[in-house]
Amino acid sequence: MEVITLRDVTKKYRSFKVLDQITLDIRRNVITGVVGRNGAGKTTLMKMIAGFTKETSGELRVFGERPFNSLTVSANMIFVDDRMGFPDAFKLEDILIECDRFYENWDDELAKRLLEYFQLPLTFKHRVLSKGKRSTFNAVIGIASRCPLTMFDEPITGMDAAARKDFYRALLKDYIAHPRTILLSSHHMEEMEDLLEDILLIDGKGVGFHGPIIDLQEKFLSLQGKANALETYATRYAIIHRSMAGPLTEWIVDNEYSEAELNELRQAGIRVAGVTASDAYLAMTGQAGGGVDDVFNAMERQ
Amino acid sequence: MLEIDGEKPIYLQIAEWLEKEIIDGTLKADDKVYSQYQLAELFNINPATAGKGLTILLDAELIYKKRGLGTFVSSNAREKLLEKRKDFTLRRLVRELLDEAKLLGIEEQQLIRLIESERKGRA
Hints:
B: elongated
């Protein structure tokens, strides 16, 4: 069953198109990682799903309803980011009381225990928290609310490495005990990829990839070797991405070769390796050519 | 945590870990196997990924399901795995060894001497 469906959904800010005719379904109780370059439209997509902003055209349904101004969506959804607004006068304990009032599945004990673990005193005011502590607090709210649709937009902003690890672990444990639909956006894909079942890659105002993370992990192969050894094969393979891995050249190619072909490459001194989901993501969203090196190379040639 | 080499997808690593548990006798015939949720907790991964690891063993009939009770180790799982490892894993390692030797310009005799000296070192 789908919790979220989009059919040809477009979002414009004035005349600027942020998302163009997006069609996708998010399955119930799946953790989906929303990834994409800065400005790709991840936040816009999630805010639209949350009902914070209206789609310009197309059909968007969350729990079967149009999310904008929907009480059903609002009561069953939480959107966590580093700009979550709480009244200035509120202490953390006041926020917990309001959450308890609003969210049907709210687990107050879990919230308090997690806040204690993360050393967030209930008597502190939200606005005095440091950036990392604020993110941690907001993330705790996101977990303890146990909303059927839980969205985290860059939840780890400012958190230190230990807090990030604890957050992912807490989220996973609570998800196993209480499955729900989770959308999680982050630039640190390598940190969260083990947690995900699906990946939604927003690229070029549309969907670059959407499906099981396992499929993304098996989509490409990495070929590494000396440039001249690799060039022999340049016409045979569709190269998704070229880069330098230290002194070696690395190509990311489609994973569609026979064992015999791979052995031929290995014998030519080329290292054939799998590609992690985050490397696949980088290859798919990186600019064509030699990356940022191209800028410096062009200047040297002048 | 598993030693993640960043190349093999995690569900394969989970499958290999379970196979290793069967080979070294930690999981014996008809022992109950970890559920996908236990594996997810243990390795800090998505339960669907853990489930896919279990599916590999189910498909290979190394484990079997009892409705409502869970998953258990097949009686011939260890024998099957030993056979597979000899045939597949060892052959792959030998191939990698030969590739590396070629790269380093090591002659066959030299390689055999190296294997012999390692073997003696263990005895």
